Automatic annotation (TrEMBL):
Family to which this protein belongs: Belongs to the AB hydrolase superfamily. MetX family.
CC per GO annotation: cytoplasm
Subcellular location: Cytoplasm
Catalysed reaction equations from the record: L-homoserine + acetyl-CoA = O-acetyl-L-homoserine + CoA
Protein name: Homoserine O-acetyltransferase
Example GO BP: homoserine metabolic process
Role: Transfers an acetyl group from acetyl-CoA to L-homoserine, forming acetyl-L-homoserine.
Amino acid sequence: MQEHFFTYNKKFNLELGGELNGLTLSYQTMGSINEDQSNIIWVCHALTGNAEVSDWWSGLFGDTAIFNPKEHFIICVNVIGSCYGSTGPLSINPDTNEPYYDTFPAVTIRDIVASLDLLRKELKIDKINTLIGGSLGGQQALEWAVSNPDLMENLIICATNAKHSPWGIAFNESQRLAIQADPTWGKRDPQAGSRGLIAARSIAMLSYRNYSTYEKTQSEDNESVTDNFKASSYQEYQGKKLLSRFNAYSYWTLSNTMDSHNLGRGRKSIEEALNGIKAYTQVIGITSDVLFPVSEQRFITQHIPNVTYEEITSLYGHDGFLVETQKIAGAIQSFFKQKNKKKIII
């Protein structure tokens, strides 16, 4: 993938009243746009994801994958608030010439979508063949499909919802409380809240996986073990793994961004918002997902006019949308075959 940067030098007004004095978006692309712009695949990434989609969704994107640079122009943008090149809490605030840190303003899903649309216009993209995302990426994709229904021809969303649930918000708040309990939190330092972030990620893993996942992967082989359990070391490992590539300020920001997701805010209802989506849509749920349970995907399916629904069986809970790429690729292939059949019948 090729990395690019887009700089917007004007004031960027945010939904909740804040503003950014300009912003930068880091994005990556594969392939080339064809003459009629009919091959554009736009990917929206999840909370701690980044623009390198061929890395974290390699089963769907790559030279031999269902979405490949020989046939498609693939684009993925690192969201504002994150830490992979787009404007975020560790970026320099041009008004102070110092990093934002805890002064970084609140960002909603709609703000992220507005920034994506700025880039789309800069690239002179008038039509997206397929918009795809899972989890927080699915929230972005849904919001974009609601706010600009004529833009995308196809919409694929996985393990996501139309409004972030009290259950999901409670998980995120518990993680923020863990960060807040770190005595270094709030310092103007890139490493502030690091121990808290490790704890926060440990909490998050409980929502990304489930009882059966841990029973299968973290059970002890020796019945006499009384300390240093596999499950214990796994939790710490996952926390430190995230700390090596992320920071507490971005995690704090984007967990709040996820909580802001509500397709019905400022509109007549969530149901009517979904009903206004024009794209041919595939909704994918993961049967063992406890963070975004399949009831949320079924609700979405009930209210989008032109839609198909697929449930993927997985041991891996919410993380199944990243792990079960072979099953998801099969579901996507069936989705496009079904669409083509409909066209023939018409």
